Amino acid sequence: MTAEKQTFIQDADAAQNSLVSMAAQSRAMNDKLTSIVSRIKSLEAGKPWGDTEEYGKPFEQQYQNDGQGSDFIRDQVGIIAEQTEHGTRLAYQAIRDTVQLDEDGAALFKVAGSENVGSTVKDTLDDQQKRAEEQQKQSGK
């Protein structure tokens, strides 16, 4: 981006850098959660709770809870990790595209020699204000 940014995003570079960092962290979280879920599945395969009528089967029934137990939780954890990573990519693209759109729009409406119009108008208004204040002081008002 240029030194004079033509965007309403105050610090697009900092926002993009933060989102790159967030995306890296979300990928790491996704990888870690995938590893944890895999480990849990391998432990569950051995049914460490047992197979007895008194304890094992009631525990397994509660643990599985007709698809709303452990499987549901594992699926939701995966969705959270994936959506976090996806969300940071979308936000990064949104900032990048907004800055580009703002810069393109500014270039479309730029007139040769108009680079300093805003500061020139402000200087003119400031000068007029000073003159008015001086005139008031001189007239004793």
Automatic annotation (TrEMBL):
Residues 119-141 are annotated as: Disordered. Residues 123-141 have a biased composition (Basic and acidic residues). This is Uncharacterized protein. It comes from Kineosporia corallincola.
